[in-house]
Amino acid sequence: MTMVWFVFIVPLVIMLFALFMERIETRLRHVAVQEDEVTQMLEDVRPDEVKALYGHGIGRALELFRLRRRGGRAARLRAERVRR
Q1: Quick one: which of 57, 56, 80 has its CA closest to 67?
Q2: Is 83 or 19 the better-scoring residue by pLDDT?
């Protein structure tokens, strides 16, 4: 009798785990850095973005790059903060 429960419970647990992991993967796909964005940044990089890449990692460097692409006062202020 215990073997019968095992046969039903294990596939259900595996299926629930797979559904849970799919939801996590979907969220991570939207948060993750895109390859074409990194390529574009590396082709058109500024010294402050290189400094951010070296000191703080790809996330901070891409943040500065995105701000610069959008333009505006916030991009200049953040670039100055990195230079200091």
Answers
A1: 80
A2: 19
DSSP-derived secondary structure letter, 84: -
42: its two tokens: 């590396």
Work out the number of other CB atoms within 10 angstroms of the CB of residue 78.
17
42-53 confidence digits (pLDDT tens): 788 778 777 877
Residue 38 and residue 49 in contact, taking contact as beta carbons nearer than 8 Å: no
Instruction: List phi, psi (to 5°) of 43.
Output: -75, -30
45: left (phi over 0), alpha (psi -120 to 50) or beta: beta
Q: Which two tokens stand for residue 3?
A: 């073997």
Distance between CA 63 and CA 56 in Å, rounded? 11
Rounded Cα–Cα distance for residues 29 and 33 (Å): 8
